[in-house]
Amino acid sequence: AAAVAAAATAAAVTAATEAAAVTAATEAAAPFPRREREAGRERRKRGSLVAEAGQPDPSVPMSGVSCSGCGAELHCRDSAAPGFMPAEKFRSLSEGLDGAEGLRGAVCQRCWMLAHYGRALRLELPAEQHRLVVSAALRRPLRHGRGPLLLYLLDVLELPDPVLPQLPALLGPDVPAAGLLVVGNKVDLLPADSPGHLGRLRQRIAEACAQAGLRRAPLVDIRLVSAKTGFGMEGLVSRLQRSWKCAGDVYLLGATNSGKSTLFNTLLRSDYCKSRAPDVIDRATVSSWPGTTLNLLKFPIINPTCDRIFRRQERLKGEAAKTEDQLSTEEKKLLNKLKKAGYLVGRVGRTFERQKPSTVIDFDPDMLSYSIDEDPKPASKKCEQREEFTYNEVKDARWCYDTPGIVKENCVVVQFILQVLNLLTDKEVKLVLPTTAIVPRTFILKPGMVLFLAALGRVDYLEGEKSAWFSVLASNLLPVHVTSLSNADAVYKKHAGHELLRVPMGGEERMKEFPPLVPQDITLKGIGTTEAVADIKLSSAGWVAVTAHQEEKLLLRAYTPQGTTLVVREPPLLPYISTVRGSRIPGSAAYRTKKPPSLVENLKPTGRR
After folding, report:
1. Are 239 and 282 members of one domain?
2. What confidence tens digit (pLDDT) does each residue in 40-84 have?
3. What backbone torsions phi and psi does residue 398 show, to the nearest 5 degrees?
4. Residues 6+ positions from 522 with CB-CB distance below 8 Å
5. Closest to 156 in 3D by CA, of 228, 234, 235
6. In this protein, which residues make up the domain named NOA1/YqeH-like C-terminal (predicted)?
7. Do 536 and 518 have their domain in common?
8. Could you give the C-alpha distances from 255 to 127, 161, 163, 250, in angstroms and in order?
9. Do 160 and 73 fall into the same domain?
10. Which of 68, 286, 376, 400 is deepest in the core (most CB within 10 A)?
């Protein structure tokens, strides 16, 4: 028996080995690698999600109810129009006892796909439509006898902001704006290259405002925040309550993808809104795709009375005296998550949070008693009533509005962002747009060397007497490849669309439809080995800060996709970024990366008394 068992075991092992060999041979002989086949299955799966999402019904009238995620009017008439909801879902919500009221709080198919699958459905919506919505909102009749405060949000990664020079024309002489507050967003993504880097960023924004000619609406202030991690948000709320109080409405303006909806959601859970607003107002849909918000969203602003301001200041003082060790487990968990996401972190709290009533349990003894011949009866589900504001709560309210992102006409920078994102797949967009703290990557190049940033940008060092430093600031998921000038074209032809350059992905077939890279020559003069002379902005993919010896002349050639304009930013955004690096890797042009520590705002450092 033992001999038979041993023989059976040996036969099984042999069979398994042969099966593994056959599988390996099959994989090797397959026309496409397994990874590409899996990617194809994933694309087909994502496509089926859209196909199976639901069908339109042109005979059903518009609802008159806005999507709680993007603000578009809900309907089931046209799947390519904003606010579309599958006909089956639309009818199930609108044909009940409440009629159209059953749609309140619902989201359109596009917001649903963005929130649950990270997929942006294409809409037949001209860019001018966003501008018309914003323009009409700003020209509303005066409420409470005073014009609105304009809170303009810009992405510090995109400086110089492409829409800021357009703002005076958008406002025009007939917009009664009472003030302008400019907010630089996404500062959490930028590493600190030197002490006082935030003050330098603020100065750059002030210079951009002056160049844009923002004179009609008085500039109230310039603030730096991260709507995602909460850095600077408590200070922004305090500034709004001190200077603007509750004098009029507030409009959030800015270019597409600047973070307005994220700021709207953060303000919604802060002391800036009425205490019941988070229970009544739905959060705006947030995604990496530009143009997510399609119409106006709003929440009521709380009246900052003297008593409320005092109570708020007491809360802030108490929180600032805490150390990280004194936080609750949930607070520590959230704080650690935010630290991984950005360099600058803040804690947004609420002073006037409404005490929710305790849950009342209906006890029915008859539901617990049944005979041996009967099955238990399921408890009847009561329809949950959606909370709404009363008339008295909002009759004199001032509102904070989230508006659609502005796309500048004939603006090459914004047009490029839209063109590239429309060409990229969902996975590629997530690789290109940075969502966590950017870790600078520095390389030392000699003349005759080339740096690739994925397959989206390229910088050639053509002429110069000495080596120069090239610091890449882009999404940490985008690869950087350094090669010689003689091999550069061959590297791009062979690896564009594949793993080495990663984006775009999809092989030769994908690259046939992607715009070719076109060159632009750049001449720079170094100012020192520790200070960059300029940033070469490679479209929405990121930028390269160039540092060279003093008075050293450099001839560079930079490439971006056809139809775009490359931006040379002088002075650079982070001039001392080349010093944020580790030791040089032996036998390589690269330095080891160095990630600066995160800074938590309004929290006492551990160990300090």
Report:
1. yes
2. 544 444 443 443 457 888 888 888 888 877 888 888 888 888 888
3. -100, 145
4. 534, 536, 555, 556, 557, 558, 568
5. 228
6. 470-570
7. yes
8. 12, 8, 6, 17
9. no
10. 400
Residues 6+ apart with CB under 8 A from 578: 442, 469, 471, 530, 532, 545, 547
Q: Which of 81, 46, 34 is nearest to 62 (CA)?
A: 81
Fill in the amino acid letter for 284.
A
> Residue 170 phi/psi, 5° resolution?
-65, -40
What is the DSSP code (8-state) at residue 456?
A: T
Question: Strands, E, within 403-537: which ranges?
Answer: 441-445, 449-453, 457-463, 468-474, 480-484, 517-525, 534-537
Structural domain of 111 = 55-124
Name the packing angle between helices 109-117 and 34-51 (round to 10°): 150
Please indicate, yes or no, whether residues 567 and 583 belong to a single structural domain of this protein.
yes
Question: Residue 65: inside a domain, yes or no?
Answer: yes
Which pLDDT score, from 0 to 100, does residue 316 have?
94
Binned at pLDDT 50, 70 and 90, residue 294 comes out as low
The helix (run of H) or strand (run of E) holding residue 599 is: strand 599-600
Give me the pLDDT at residue 351, please.
Answer: 92
d(CA 497, CA 499): 7
Decide: 233 and 264 in contact? Cβ < 8 Å. Answer: no
State mean pLDDT over 396-422: 64
Q: Is residue 584 part of a domain?
A: yes
Number of domains in the chain: 3
**Lookup: tokens for 395:** 């009759």
User: pTM for this structure?
Assistant: 0.80
Q: Which amino acid is at 422?
A: N
Q: List pLDDT tens digits, range 550-562.
A: 999 999 999 998 8
Does position 29 have pLDDT exceeding 50, yes or no?
no
Same-domain pairing of 191 and 305: yes
Average of per-residue pLDDT values in the chain:
80
State both tokens at 374.
Answer: 């009967």
Contact 480, 442 (CB under 8 A): no
| Cβ pair 71, 295 in contact under 8 A | yes
pLDDT score recorded for residue 539: 78
pLDDT of residue 17: 45
Q: Residues 184-204: what's their mean pLDDT?
A: 95
Task: Say if residues 448 and 484 touch (Cβ distance below 8 Å).
Answer: yes
My answer on whether 106 and 227 are in the same domain is no
Question: Is the pLDDT at 265 greater than 70, yes or no?
Answer: yes
- Stronger pLDDT, 477 or 93, i.e. the higher one: 477
Cα(305)–Cα(301) distance, integer angstroms: 12
